[in-house]
Write a structure and sequence with these properties.
With about 70 residues, the chain is mainly β. It has strands at about 5-10, 15-20, 35-40. The termini are far apart.
Length: about 70
């Protein structure tokens, strides 16, 4: 289930709420009971290649240029 970060405008507390994506836009009350909250923009870090590429997680060697060197630019 996705996690959404909220900040309370009344007390400044930042908290997390786990809820289905269908309820992502619904308001959330802070743990202190305040209703004036705002949903924060969360960042996601994705690592790994999901099975693609060389074994061991090492990245494939690449050349320079704007396209990784595959076209010789």
């Amino acid at each position: 289930m996705p996690r959404y970060d909220f900040r309370c405008r009344a007390c400044g507390d930042t908290f997390e709420v786990n809820r289905p994506m269908a309820e992502a836009g619904q308001p959330a009350s802070c743990p202190q009971g305040h209703a004036d909250t705002v949903k924060l923009l969360s960042t996601v870090a994705v690592t790994g290649r999901g099975g693609a590429g060389p074994v061991g997680g090492a990245s494939a060697p690449s050349g320079g240029g704007c396209c990784g060197g595959a076209c010789g630019c």
